[in-house]
Amino acid sequence: MKIVMAVIKPFKLDEVREALTSLGIEGLTVTEVKGYGRQKGHTEIYRGAEYAVAFLPKLKIEVAVSSAMADKAVEAIAAAAKTGQIGDGKIFVFSIEHVVRSRTGETNADAL
Amino acid sequence: MKIVMAVIKPFKLDEVREALTSLGIEGLTVTEVKGYGRQKGHTEIYRGAEYAVAFLPKLKIEVAVSSAMADKAVEAIAAAAKTGQIGDGKIFVFSIEHVVRSRTGETNADAL
Amino acid sequence: MKIVMAVIKPFKLDEVREALTSLGIEGLTVTEVKGYGRQKGHTEIYRGAEYAVAFLPKLKIEVAVSSAMADKAVEAIAAAAKTGQIGDGKIFVFSIEHVVRSRTGETNADAL
Amino acid sequence: MLTRINKTLVAGGAMSLASAAIAFAQDTVPAAAPATTMDKGDTGFMMIATVLVLFMILPGLALFYGGLVRAKNMLSVLMQVTMITAVVMVIWVVYGYSFSFGGSTSPWWGGTAKLFLAGVTPASEAATFTVGVVIPEYVFIAFQMTFACITPALIVGAFVERIKFSAVIAFVVLWVTFAYFPIAHMVWDANGYLFGLGAIDFAGGTVVHINAGIAALVASYMVGKREGYGRDIMAPHSMTFTMVGASMLWVGWFGFNAGSNLEANAGAALAMINTFTATAGAIIAWALLESVLRGKASMLGAASGLVAGLVAVTPAAGTIGPIGAIVLGAIASVVCYFFVSVVKNSLKYDDSLDVFGIHGVGGIIGALGTAVFSAASLGGVKGDDYSIMAQMMIQIQAVVITIVWCAVVSIVAFLIVKAIFGLRVSKEAEATGLDLVSHGEAAYHN
Amino acid sequence: MLTRINKTLVAGGAMSLASAAIAFAQDTVPAAAPATTMDKGDTGFMMIATVLVLFMILPGLALFYGGLVRAKNMLSVLMQVTMITAVVMVIWVVYGYSFSFGGSTSPWWGGTAKLFLAGVTPASEAATFTVGVVIPEYVFIAFQMTFACITPALIVGAFVERIKFSAVIAFVVLWVTFAYFPIAHMVWDANGYLFGLGAIDFAGGTVVHINAGIAALVASYMVGKREGYGRDIMAPHSMTFTMVGASMLWVGWFGFNAGSNLEANAGAALAMINTFTATAGAIIAWALLESVLRGKASMLGAASGLVAGLVAVTPAAGTIGPIGAIVLGAIASVVCYFFVSVVKNSLKYDDSLDVFGIHGVGGIIGALGTAVFSAASLGGVKGDDYSIMAQMMIQIQAVVITIVWCAVVSIVAFLIVKAIFGLRVSKEAEATGLDLVSHGEAAYHN
Amino acid sequence: MLTRINKTLVAGGAMSLASAAIAFAQDTVPAAAPATTMDKGDTGFMMIATVLVLFMILPGLALFYGGLVRAKNMLSVLMQVTMITAVVMVIWVVYGYSFSFGGSTSPWWGGTAKLFLAGVTPASEAATFTVGVVIPEYVFIAFQMTFACITPALIVGAFVERIKFSAVIAFVVLWVTFAYFPIAHMVWDANGYLFGLGAIDFAGGTVVHINAGIAALVASYMVGKREGYGRDIMAPHSMTFTMVGASMLWVGWFGFNAGSNLEANAGAALAMINTFTATAGAIIAWALLESVLRGKASMLGAASGLVAGLVAVTPAAGTIGPIGAIVLGAIASVVCYFFVSVVKNSLKYDDSLDVFGIHGVGGIIGALGTAVFSAASLGGVKGDDYSIMAQMMIQIQAVVITIVWCAVVSIVAFLIVKAIFGLRVSKEAEATGLDLVSHGEAAYHN
Ligand SMILES: Nc1ncnc2c1ncn2[C@@H]1O[C@H](COP(=O)(O)OP(=O)(O)O)[C@@H](O)[C@H]1O
Ligand SMILES: Nc1ncnc2c1ncn2[C@@H]1O[C@H](COP(=O)(O)OP(=O)(O)O)[C@@H](O)[C@H]1O
Ligand SMILES: Nc1ncnc2c1ncn2[C@@H]1O[C@H](COP(=O)(O)OP(=O)(O)O)[C@@H](O)[C@H]1O
User: Fold this and answer.
1) Min distance C29 CA to chain E CA atoms (Å)
2) What is the pLDDT of residues E11-66, one digit of tens each?
């Protein structure tokens, strides 16, 4: 099994979720994060004090999928998250060894 | 070494932490997240606008443990996080290659 | 490729970011987290109610790097995050199999 | 006292006699002025009433509206309300007061005699509804100024989260000049056209609420929907602030309604108790309706009912009774409820914070309800020779004229502003939020 | 002026003469009424005082309480306070005013003569403490109405975060009917039982604070503890809102205390300065105590002291001196401090926001302290024939009667409500939070 | 009326005659007192004005400042403002009132005759600016008390986020004793030195704003910069609260400025309308400047302009005209803007919330602008024998004396406090935030 972890622009959440559910993926976990990258931040001025805010609000999505699904999930996310503008974000994939559903104790594929 | 990453219901945090400390695990990191899954969300209505809120507040716990401890940690979390109701969450385990404690430079097992 | 995931003290963010950019690392993702560990929390009192707050505010940094860079990144973070006081945090390294940049579809090294 | 109140009713508008008498006093004071009395009780009360109306706007209305938008647009709302207030204050002393109450005999505007408050000194007096009783004209100017400020600020709710800041200011300047000042003159000046008809508008149902409501309806069509409207979650970022703002509106509204009596007497007390009970009735009605139809009474529902009740009682406060006020408030809530939750959804325009649905619709209910509940048989103070139907016809005329005048001015004003400044920020700017894009700030940090 | 004040003292309660005189005026106005004077200074002042008491409730008390609960229950608190206010307002004009001040000669209630405010017109007058000086009865009704609204709203603090919304409303309807209105009559009406005893309760220490405090104590036992009480962290979600609410309570309390004088004169000024200094003394005492005992003075401590001081000075404001007020406030703080931080913990009931610990206990300190600090020797205005011990006995009687009456009504009311609606939401609902479960909303979004 | 106002102008300070007359009344009331009139309209108005000034401090100023700091220091700001208010209230009735207005003939202080408000009863009267017109002395004491409370609270903005709580309180006690009370006496008492010079300070430009501004400048040097100043992001944690606080300051400022007239008449009305228009002018000026220089008008800019305008109009409100007020407010905004965004950055001190940059600089602009805009030729009420230049010289003297006196007292007070308590918390404590470290609480939880 894999976890597909994607950083996306916040307003793309619903599109990404729909793309995933249309693949039959039924769960995901979202975290509010701040991203630093090529997309430049903004400047805020408070009276005399000027602050360069380098970190932009992003969402991080983590979705556990079977190894077979991983590529499709990546593609779906990439397509849904894309605006073509800098800062669309990145998708990372890594292996997980074990999954458990707390409610039932089911493991691995059954737990997804 | 492993990282055990669990999504739990927010009010279960203290029980989960106690379960882990009783195994001798002395550190963990918690993140507020929003979860989407089988547990259905709720609807909020603001005057004429009805919003289906699909994402529910959850906590994500990350705890790095020696490979030997991983299974026990998973069990402990699963037991503590369980209410038997849908939405109790999932536990994911993956390998980490390297751990460093910033304060001392200790690595791996010493750093946990 | 690797993800270097570090828990640091919040006010160290700018130093850590500078340490990483001086290595040529151009992106990272930051999450506000609560940490539990050896560093002891504090007590808050609200009239008669006394609460021991065990969780301390920390930041979690995730940075994807080429495998070659991983060690340097770890060192840089450890050095920048260090105050020498308990609670400086930990750095975890794990492998990722695949990286995609949503905007361009570039993969792996090109996507970083 | 009943005499005095009856007279107000005959006069049919809160400040009507006032302005006439100001002109009179102005003209004649140097020569043989009729003896006037000024009571410090009135002067003090009216100054506090004026402060209360400012409180309705800042922070009241700003918070009420601000809480309802997304966090990324919070400061833009606060800033729009603040700047409108400041700009209209300056306009008011420069030409607004003159255009409204400058003493001209035209039924449509007040003329230019008091540009820059020409001729007003601390010794100038403004009449009240009691013959011979006056207050300092500066007090009347300041009190009326706050009305001129809050009215355009109410419109903001229609176009939040997407409008250009420059467009807001330009629109407001045009709108107060060609809609607010003339209509204030028509309704409240003794020479005004609607005043002459005998319309009852104690504290500004037409001038303030219908006026702002219609402008808001026009705005929501001219400016267009927010990006993602109907798709994205646009839940209020802080219902707490909205509730605090609504509470402040209620508190300040006593300045608005009781102050419109211009004297600290039983007439003001009647307006005050009606402003309590109508609002209470409206809150309960909205909450009950939600309980029945949705199973849950919401805080936003209660706050919406609260405002609907206040709007509805505004024209009526001086002439109805406290039990009638409960009913009037409840009716306004019910109608506004169906408007914002059914009618608006089916018409699919984005009057984002329901300015039309609450101020426009509630204002119309209030204007018509005033004709009904002012009758003595329904607890009002209108005596034997009062005909509900006759008054109703007058009220309808006043409402229709206000609607038409305001709609025309609003459409033209938006067309002009669109041509010169454009109305909306870019889609990207809208996604980022107006706070950063238009004001270079964020409302919240750690 | 001293004469007038002395008379107040003899009268021994803030509105006692008032209500008597209303009845009188009502009876006689048609015939040969004694000459009365109405001063616009009084009328204006009392209207603003009324507005200030509304401000205490909305948004004052709502924010003070709301800030202290967890974010997931914020709107439920705001909503409970709002709905209680609206419901009691309607009840007040329907039968509450009559039950309290309807003019009956019963020592226990005011009768039914003024149901639906029957007979009240803008010409109706209410007496003040100065013979012959009157204010419009509508002002008196509105002012007293705000007292009837805030008292049950205070009780909310005892059962937040777990109670059913329907239960709150049902309880409040029963409670104001059988506890508040009778006790208001007993204390403030010239025919009232406690009034007859000679109890001093200038602005409502027994009627408002002890009354609400006892109901809260009963509530905390009847409703039971919150899930996780003593285990989970239930820290205030926004001490900022709590501090803002406390500040607004202070600001509004001048309407409450100075307004209870019914005239804008030196008696009101005395009540005002005492309301400043007692509160200051109480803030300092609580902060000092925390500094000594815990090493740190907290904002919640200062806010708690602030409210304790206001509660304590409420019955005393008209008869003590400003230096005595400092001491009274400080004593109240010290006693309340030990109550909420020691006694409550050892008794293990969950009066969640310390309504009993502050309003109940502070109210008792105030009632008894009034007997002490009213003495001229301690800076009060009570002259030669005043006996602290004699007055103390009377005050104790008033306190005990209020406690017993209120406790009985509260218990019965909760039993009835429990039988019909149930008192608590389910455990799951409590975990989710009342905002979503009972109101379908969330207080905060992005 | 003009006569009365002219007299005020001749008197040259808001409360000058008042205090003189109090002493007089005190002395003579027992014997053959000159006939005085007390109008309930004045008494009621002044009580509400007093409440409005409290509202400026709590929650107004507390929120204005609190919103500007980081969340971890929010409660420390609220707590400092609250405790300063409480402590100065107690000091005021113990010795502050006596030191300021105790009736001594010294030009430097009021003496000890009224320690513990000795001799003040409800029957005591305080004079106003109209001969023979009085208000209850308790009202005057309470009104002036709020001025004594807000002034040191203003200084807080200079040393937030790093100062020890004990140091704040100790400094304030010394500072009000040796800076505020003497300067209030000098400016507002008939025997006061600056009063004797003929300085115009209607509502406290020197006593309140320049005084606080200079103390703040001293504080920022004595306490030193915050850790990370100029490097870390120290953005306001809630611009919403800051805007709400600024709005409340505006609302409350009418109590401050119109109340300084002591009577509810046209003089107060003039002060009121000027307090509207000067502020509006200042808001617009700051926003325009930002639009031109940065391309964006910020909410913090508008709020800063708002306060700058209020500060500038404070000494001038009773003697200038509403159009002149617009110009005065705009000038103050422009100067303060350059001060806080250019001068301060180049001088590199950390007056964290710009107390000097806005209150000090704005106060000086106001003091000097008063001399200019009071001239009849510029819309003011000063007639034929008025010389702008002559008055300007007097104003400059008043400003310089205030600056020097205040600077010396502030430096010495900080040195003493530093020696005894130390001024700053540790670096670690500063990193953690004062809320947890000094008060054991956090402002926000879930
Ligand atoms: N090396 C990295 N490690 C972790 N997160 C990264 C990395 N590079 C970028 N990100 C995340 O992806 C977001 C988008 O990256 P950015 O370089 O701005 O644009 P783009 O995705 O178009 O290349 C960043 O805000 C950050 O959250
Ligand atoms: N495939 C997944 N990947 C990542 N997180 C998941 C996934 N499925 C579920 N989750 C997380 O687990 C939470 C609980 O899942 P849910 O399906 O609602 O109930 P249950 O845990 O009882 O099966 C979700 O809210 C989400 O945060
Ligand atoms: N086993 C662990 N798994 C995950 N996070 C951990 C673990 N141990 C510590 N942490 C994180 O590292 C932070 C610092 O750890 P702590 O033990 O307090 O100090 P130190 O880093 O100096 O050893 C914790 O607050 C927590 O967020």
Assistant:
1) 20
2) 333 444 444 334 333 333 444 456 899 999 999 999 999 999 999 999 999 999 99
Ligand 2 pocket member B16 (CB < 6 A): no
pLDDT in single tens digits along all 112 residues of chain C? 999 999 999 989 999 999 999 999 999 999 999 999 999 999 999 998 999 999 999 999 999 999 999 999 999 999 999 999 999 999 999 999 999 999 999 987 887 8
Tell me the per-residue pLDDT of D294-335, one tens digit each, with 9 for 90 and over: 999 999 999 999 999 999 999 999 999 999 999 999 999 999
CA distance E20 to E43: 19
Q: Are D54 and D81 in contact (CB under 8 A)?
A: no
- Among chain A residues, CA nearest to F346: A48
Considering only residues E386 and E17, tell me which one the structure prediction assigns the higher pLDDT: E386
Least CB–CB distance from A33: residue in C26, C29, C98: C29
Does residue A8 sit at the C interface (CB-CB below 8 Å)? yes
Q: List Cβ neighbours of D109 (8 Å cut-off, separation of 6 or more).
A: D99, D100, D102, D181, D182, D185
Cβ-Cβ contacts under 8 Å for A81 (sequence gap 6 or more): A6, A8, A9, A12, A15, A16, A88, A89, A91, C102
Could you give the count of Cα atoms lying within 13 Å of D408 in the half-sphere of its Cβ? 7
**Regions of chain D where pLDDT drops below 70:** 1-34
- Name D69's Cβ contacts closer than 8 Å, sequence gap at least 6: D76, D77, D160, D161, D236, D237, D352, D353
The DSSP call for residue F29 is T
pTM for the full predicted model: 0.95
Which residues in chain C are closer than 8 Å to F436, comparing Cβ atoms? 42, 44
Q: Which residues in chain B come in under a pLDDT of 70?
A: none
pLDDT of residue F18: 39
Interhelix angle D165-175/D388-420, rounded to 10 degrees, is 140
Longest dimension (CA), chain F: 69
- The alpha-helical segments, DSSP class H, found in E314-348 are 322-338, 344-347
Residue B4 is inside which H or E element, if any?
Answer: strand B2-8
Closest-lying ligand 3 atom to the alpha carbon of residue B103: 22
Based on its alpha-carbon atoms, the radius of gyration of chain D, rounded to whole angstroms, reads 21
Q: Which residue type sits at D264?
A: A
Q: Is the CB of B39 under 6 A from ligand 2?
A: yes
Stated length of chain E = 446
pLDDT tens by residue, E125-167: 999 999 999 999 999 999 999 999 999 999 999 999 999 999 9
Q: Is residue D144 within 8 Å of residue D256, measured between CB atoms?
A: no
Instruction: Point out the ligand 2 atom lying closest to the alpha carbon of residue B89.
Output: 21
D7-12 long-range contacts, Cβ below 8 Å, gap at least 24? Answer: D7/D129, D7/D130, D8/D129, D8/D202, D8/D261, D8/D267, D8/D318, D8/D319, D9/D200, D9/D318, D9/D319, D9/D374, D9/D381, D9/D382, D11/D129, D11/D195, D12/D195, D12/D198, D12/D199, D12/D200, D12/D201
* pLDDT for position D33: 57
Residue pair F128/F262 in contact (Cβ under 8 Å)? The answer is yes
Q: Which chain D residues touch E436 with a CB distance below 8 Å?
A: none
Spatial CA neighbour of F285 closest among F248, F338, F321, F238: F338
C88 lines ligand 3 (CB under 6 A): yes
Beta bridge partners of A61: A6, A30
Q: Is the pLDDT of residue E384 over 90?
A: no
Q: What is the rounded distance in angstroms from the CA atom of residue F263 to the CA atom of residue E91?
A: 39
Name the closest residue on chain C to residue B31, using Cα atoms: C33
**A62 close to ligand 2 (CB < 6 Angstrom):** yes
Q: Residue D268: how many CA atoms within 13 Å on its side-chain side?
A: 33
Among candidate residues E157, E207, E201, E217, the one with its CA nearest the CA of residue E185: E207
Give the C-alpha separation, F251 to D99, whole Å. Answer: 27
Measured between beta carbons, the chain A residues lying within 8 angstroms of C102 are: 6, 8, 77-78, 81-82, 88-91
